[in-house]
Amino acid sequence: MNPVEEFLLPALQVKSMEDEKHDSIRIANICAAKSVADAVRTSLGPRGMDKMIQTADGEVTITNHGATILKQMSVIHPTARMVRIFLNHNILWK
């Protein structure tokens, strides 16, 4: 069980199979959003690390710019994609 599930499961009351399904979907959405945020979080601040991103055709980019990281990120999960779009617009317009 991952840390997010350990944190959230006591707060979620499972009443039926349908509620359990909703809870697992909610946890999956939170984990997907958290993974996108974690990819950018470590590149922020004065001690931010550079990220090496390799595209499908082998092109390598090294950057610590959040918008560049998000722009080149390939995301499949719908919630993660939504977070990526939001963060990308938020970073570009600050």
TrEMBL record:
It comes from the Eukaryota. InterPro entries: Chaperone_TCP-1, Chaperonin_TCP-1_CS, Cpn60/GroEL/TCP-1, GROEL-like_equatorial_sf. It holds the Pfam family Cpn60_TCP1. Gene3D superfamilies: GroEL-like equatorial domain. One of its GO terms (molecular function) is ATP binding. Keywords: ATP-binding, Chaperone, Nucleotide-binding. Belongs to the TCP-1 chaperonin family. This is Uncharacterized protein. It comes from Panagrolaimus davidi.
